[in-house]
Amino acid sequence: MFRQVKSAIFWTLVYKFRKRLTLVVLLLSTVLLSQWIYADIIEYLKLTEKTQYLNYILPIKWFVILLNIGVSAYILLTLFKQNNTVLKEVEEKPEKQKIYKETKQKSNSKFSDREKKFLNKKLRSEAEVLMDR
Question: CB of 20 within 8 A of CB of 75?
Fold first, then answer.
């Protein structure tokens, strides 16, 4: 049963962060692809006897590899951080609550005095009624 729970949590997280995880996989596959391309370029430059360009190829390869690994690490580290949009929604909630309260007060004016009394009356559970006896 523990295995099923663990699997469910894992696949839920994969589904939730599928865009970011896809990007990470693409970046890391670019790292592997850059190694294959580098080996191919080295072979080509040796065959055409243009070894003077080897000085430029190695730093470019490592720049691509380190850049992709760095971006992947950044994406994975910020995976669970809260977005700014969530924070903005939290800040807007008090304004929505004020509007809701104002509309509720306006709608209360439609009720008679007796209805207003019942709206504001505290409801007691059966247990509270029994305790009062």
Answer: yes
Whether the CB-CB separation of 85 and 91 falls below 8 Å is answered with no
CA atoms of 30 and 68, how far apart (whole Å) = 7
Query: How far is Cα of residue 7 from the mean position of the Cα atoms in its chain?
Result: 20
Nearest Cα residue to 30 out of 58, 91, 2, 72 = 72
Q: Are 37 and 89 in contact (CB under 8 A)?
A: no
Question: How far is the C-alpha of 25 from the C-alpha of 33, rounded, in Å?
Answer: 12
With tokens 């790292």, the residue in question is 31
Query: Which pLDDT tens digit goes with each residue over 55-101?
Result: 898 899 889 889 888 888 888 888 777 665 555 655 556 666 666 66
